[in-house]
Structure formats: C-alpha cells, structure tokens
Design goal:
Layout: H1 6-12, H2 38-45, H3 60-73, E1 77-81, H4 84-95, E2 101-105, H5 110-119, E3 126-130, H6 138-141, E4 146-152, H7 164-173, E5 177-181, H8 186-189, E6 199-203, E7 217-221, H9 223-236, H10 242-252, H11 255-274, E8 279-283, H12 293-299, E9 306-311, H13 314-324, E10 340-342, H14 354-359, E11 366-370, H15 376-389
Parallel strand pairs: 2-3, 2-4, 4-5, 5-6
Antiparallel strand pairs: 1-7, 6-7, 8-9, 9-11, 10-11
Helix pairs in contact: 3-10, 4-9, 13-15
Bound molecules: pyridoxal-5'-phosphate (PLP).
Length: 391
C-alpha cells in the first residue's frame, strides 16, 4: 500500500488533471501520442523518457489502473491485459523457455488448466500438480527445470485454500518464481506478496469490475519480472483497452464497500446452506467447518463471495436444482453484483471425466454460488425454494 489507506488510494490515486481540471479521471481514448519533434521521438523510443507512445505499450488510463492495483497489492510494478487469461498466458510466455517446468495446485481455473495440459506442452513446457491434501509433496515435484510455483487461493471452483506463506517459503528455498492468481480474493481481501509471492495475477473481469460489464486482467509484482512481461506484451499485443481501464479504475473506488457486502452476504448464505437437509457439504473459507479455515483466517481479511456446496443426488440433482432457480442468474461469470449459480460438472467441467473432475475437487453434485449484492434474504429465499422443488 502507498502512504494512504487502501480505500483512500483506491479513490485518490489518479493521473494528473488536464487543463480542464476535471474531477473524475478523463478517458484517453487514443491509440497513439504525439511527439514535440524528431529528438523527442528518438528519446522516447530509446526509453530515455517515461512517457506514453502507443496504447499497446501504455496509456494514461491503463497506467492509472495498474498504479492502483500495485498500491493495493504492495507491488513494485505491473502491466494490464485485455482479459485475465491473457495475463496468465503472457506471464508464462514471457518468463518460460522451452524445457521449463511448472509446479501447480491441481484445482485451477478451467482455462488455466487447459493452458497447462493442451497449449504450453506445444512449446515443451510441462506442469506437475499437487492436490490440496498433497502440500507436503510439493518439494518432491520440483526438478532442475522447475521455474514457476503456481497457485490460486481460494481456488476455482473448489474454494480450497492454499497456505501462501508455506508455498512462498518453498518457492524461495528452490529459487522458483511464485505466482498467485488472486482473483477470488481481490486485492482487498488478500495480498499474496506479503506471503512471498513474486507475481500476483487478477482477472479484473470478476470482483474488480464487479458489475459484469468489461473484461480485463493484470499482473503485478517484482519490477524485473514485470519488465520481461511488459516487453513480451508490448510486442505481442494483449493490452487492456483504455476504455476498459477507465471502467476498472472507477470500479476500484468502490471495491472495498462492495467486497465487504459480498462477504457479509456470502457468509449468511453459507450458514443457511450448512443447515439445509438436502445439502451434504458446504465450503466457504470463513465457516469453521472449512478444512483450511485457519489458513484462510491467517491470510484473508474475510471469506470472499464464492460458496461451494454439494447437493444430494449427484449430477441430475444439480441440473434439476439449477432449473428451479428463479432470481439468481445461470451465467458463466462470477464476482458480479448479481448472484450467479453454476453447476461445474454439467457445464464448465463437463469435458473432464468423473475421475478428472474429482481430482480437481468437483463432485457431480457440486454447485458454485457467486453471492451478489441483492438483499441477502431474497438470495436465500431463491436458493431455498429451488432446494424444496428440485426433486
Ligand atoms: C475468470 C478467471 C480467470 C480468467 O479471467 P478472464 O478475465 O475471464 O480471462 C482466471 N483465473 C480465475 C481464478 C478466474 O476466476
């Protein structure tokens, strides 16, 4: 964090005002910037000046957004991307060479899993996985070619919690770059750099936008690593658009109040589900029944907005339950002001075998709720009526 408190930086860190003395940050919807003369142009391209040249490299709106995320995460530097996945991919592509190896937690976002299994192997980059109960095996997976230790926490969609401090120590001991996808926590609830992360990734599409409008991503962390990521990205073109950066920077102004309310609602929803007789398991980091509850308490301010639960009756029950939902949305997004209910086994993870699904922590009856900002009684009433009708 900078010199001021989180909420203040989120609101008050802004690019310089123009001659119009606008109060809110203006939108610089421009693809390029002009030079005073040939000498100015030469010096700009020779990196002798820290200034905007072309919006694939940088833009005042993306810089404002990145600067805020850096302050919130306690990071030295960062780069903003068009999507969370371009942040994940560009981070790997910039830092890894053919023959390099990644050690990752088993439960990761579906597209990240596809990167590890289908695409990175095209460049001879391989990945070994540890399950949530195999943290003690991480060191045995490290080889001389291992370069990155990767995790999410909480994980998508199983809502497992990994001990970031422990992983940070392992990464340090083996000289690995420790990369954390911090999307489910948001920069407000958890700052992995404090626990030893070298790089932190966010899909800004989720809680950071928080209103289901734009896609975006960001990687922040150690300046030397970010410089490599910046040079790769400046030349390959996954940059965030100035418009989306402007939306996202404005969203950060309300991040703390939104996430506080998301967490308050999610805790109430999880307590309601815990007492329901058609539900066999509820997973929410700030329920004392969560298997890694104490770790969650150590590294997170609150439990986040994602609740996972297991409905009795397996895959059919999950599908029927979704069909009875009335208020909440059936949608692929999460971290939205609108509550979203998904059934990973029949949708996002339907291409995996049942065995593969179980390995990433998805049983057939698993339902994931991204608890929104509607009145929590209405959210609970909707889940309750769907639970009473589904069979
Ligand atoms: C959504 C998500 C991503 C990908 O972000 P996009 O903006 O959709 O590309 C990456 N990691 C996690 C944990 C996510 O939930």
């Amino acid at each position: 964090m900078g010199s001021k408190k989180f909420e203040t930086e989120a609101i008050r860190s802004q690019i310089e005002r123009s001659q119009f003395l606008e109060h809110s940050s203006p939108l610089y919807l421009t693809s390029s910037f002009i030079f005073e003369d040939a000498e100015d142009m030469r010096a700009s391209f020779a990196d002798e000046k820290d200034r905007n040249i072309y919006s694939r490299f940088s833009n005042p709106n993306t810089s404002e957004f990145v600067d805020k995320i850096c302050k919130m995460e306690g990071a030295e530097s960062g780069y903003a991307f068009a999507t969370g996945m371009s942040a994940v991919f560009s981070t790997f592509a910039a830092l890894l060479n053919s023959g390099d190896h990644i050690v990752s937690s088993r439960s990761v976002f579906g597209s990240t899993h596809s990167l590890f299994t289908k695409f990175l192997p095209k460049w001879n980059i391989t990945t070994s996985y540890f399950k949530i109960d195999e943290v003690d095996k991480i060191e045995s997976l490290v080889t001389p070619n291992t370069k990155i230790l990767y995790t999410e926490s909480p994980t998508n969609p199983a809502v497992d919690i990994l001990d970031l401090e422990l992983l940070g120590k392992i990464a340090k001991k083996h000289n690995l770059i420790f990369v954390v996808d911090n999307c489910f926590a948001s920069p407000y609830l958890q700052n992995p750099i404090k626990f030893g992360a070298d790089l932190v990734i966010h899909s800004a599409t989720k809680l950071i936008d928080g209103q289901g409008r734009v896609l975006g991503g960001v990687t922040v962390g150690k300046a030397d690593l970010i410089q490599e990521i910046y040079l790769f990205s400046r030349n390959t073109g996954p940059a965030l658009s100035p418009f989306n950066a402007w939306v996202l920077s404005k969203s950060l102004e309300t991040l703390s109040v939104r996430v506080d309310k998301h967490c308050e609602n999610a805790l109430k929803v999880s307590k309601f589900l815990e007492n329901h007789n058609k539900i066999s398991m509820v997973k929410y980091p700030f329920l004392t029944s969560h298997p890694q509850h104490l770790i969650a308490k150590k590294q997170m301010k609150q439990g986040g907005n994602i609740v996972a639960f297991k409905i009795k009756g397996g895959i059919e029950a999950g599908r029927k339950f979704l069909n009875k939902i009335e208020l909440c949305s059936l949608s692929a997004n999460l971290g939205d002001s609108r509550t979203i209910v998904t059934h990973p086994a029949s949708t996002t993870h339907s291409k995996l075998s049942e065995q593969e699904r179980l390995e990433v922590g998805i049983s057939d009856g698993l339902v994931r709720v991204s608890v929104g900002l509607e009145n929590v009684e209405d959210i609970i009433n909707d889940l309750n009526q769907a639970l009473s009708k589904y069979q």
